[in-house]
Specification:
Elements (H helix, E strand, L loop, with lengths): L2 H12 L1 H8 L1 H9 L1 H4 L2 E6 L4 E6 L2 H19 L9 E6 L2
Parallel strand pairs: 2-3
Antiparallel strand pairs: 1-2
Length: 94
């Protein structure tokens, strides 16, 4: 058995594969949302239940992003295990 296959099986059996898929949203954020949104946001964490916490630069952007949440969620979950991110919590940066 190749090391990669063994690791894949371990992650699947332990339940860590889902958490790893959720965590991969953070480094992929700029690619998922594009440069304009990435410039005014900073993803912080993902909870086990699929809540993504994202800091936003201004309240105007936060309002806009709340309206765009369904589209952003679709981009995040596209081509992956459905529902890896279930909700986004937009947090105003201080």
């Amino acid at each position: 058995m190749v090391v990669g296959e063994a690791l894949h099986q371990y992650l699947a059996k332990s339940g860590l594969a889902k958490r790893l898929a959720q965590a991969q949203v953070i480094p992929a954020w700029p690619r998922l949302v594009g440069p304009q949104i990435a410039a005014v946001t900073a993803p912080e964490s993902v909870t086990a239940d699929g809540t993504l916490f994202v800091r936003v630069a201004t309240s105007a952007w936060m309002t806009e992003l709340q309206l765009m949440s369904p589209d952003i969620m679709a981009r995040i979950n596209a081509g992956r295990e459905a529902g890896r991110i279930k909700t986004i919590r937009w947090l105003l940066s201080s």
